Amino acid sequence: MQYKFLLFFIFLFIGSIIAQNDDFIEPKTTIGGYGELHFNHEKTIKNDVKQTLDFHRFVLFFSHTWNEKWSFKSEVELEHNFVQDGQGELELEQAYINYHYADWIGFQFGVVLPSIGLINENHEPVLFMGVERPEYHNKIIPTTWFGNGMAIYGKLKGFDYKVTIMEGLNNEKFSHSSGIRSGRKKGFMANAKNLLYNFRLDYIDIPGLKLGASYSYNKASGDTSSNKIDLLEFHASYKNNNILAIFEYGQINYEKYSLNKSNGFYFDLGYDFADLLNIETRVIPFIRYTDYNTASSTTLGGNSEQKYHYNYFMFGVSVKPLDNVVFKADYGSRINEIETENSKLFNLGVGYYF
């Protein structure tokens, strides 16, 4: 049954190729990338102090354009400087052939990103506030989430959509502490038995405003068991008149076993003072409030539904001497509902994108 969607997708793609009328442009190859250096200071409720200095990500983009419609895009990422004995990661986060038939329809085939939330597809450090990505995008939406598959996308009458069909999750690696995050297969010899289906729709017809939602479904399968999950999330962003406001909410439902539900949200509000200060450098102070619980509903009782519930209040500033270079600082307090893992956090960072 699930492969009927896949076949429809392929037939639609073949039909668009047959109807193509490519305009000639000069083929070209492009190299780009981004990176971010972080200093993190964390003091726990027990007065333990952890300080790290980490070049968190070094990413290179490679793309090639054959003509007006056909192109290739890829992203290779090195995390934490090197890879050895389980430390650091080297990942192929994107590698797909892109066929852009028209603004209303295009196709991707290869290593793709499902369209879930505001950051999974667009996660360069100059695009989000705070030194680290929002914790919501670690605990609820496991950014960066990628895998082998295909997608169809387009823009039509003020709406932007994307449908992704890709490898599913390994349910045997789900946990109360991290939700579905460890279940990602990351394209490595992924079992194609039960695919993941993702649909996202955004309204973008008002300048600076994006309103949207996505729904994802997967019968996640491990070696000996399976567990159906669905993820529904809503997102909104407003970036205009020097105001930057973001809201995201997501909920994961699990069919069986002890974990029933994960959910969370966060809200960012910032203001760019460049115009008021009459300078070209963008100075953006901001605040963020986050609430998430990777085990918000369980069958175990006791404190199992409070153990992984956190509130995180943060304030900080982003300074952009150029649109593609950012210096960041933030300070925040992360509070656990049963107060076993409260922390004070101070972070500094620098990021770039080209």
Describe the structure.
The protein has helices at residues 2-18, 136-139, 274-277, and strands spanning 28-44, 49-65, 70-84, 87-102, 105-112, 147-156, 159-166, 196-203, 209-221, 226-240, 243-254, 259-271, 282-298, 309-322, 325-336, 343-353. It is built from 3 helices and 16 strands. It is 7% helix and 58% strand. It has 354 residues and is mainly β. 30% of the residues are buried. It has a single domain, classed as Porin, CATH 2.40.160.10. A hairpin with a 6-residue loop joins strand 15 and strand 16. It has a 16-stranded antiparallel beta barrel with strand order 1-2-3-4-5-6-7-8-9-10-11-12-13-14-15-16. It is globular, with a radius of gyration of 21 Å. The model has no long low-confidence stretch (mean pLDDT 94).
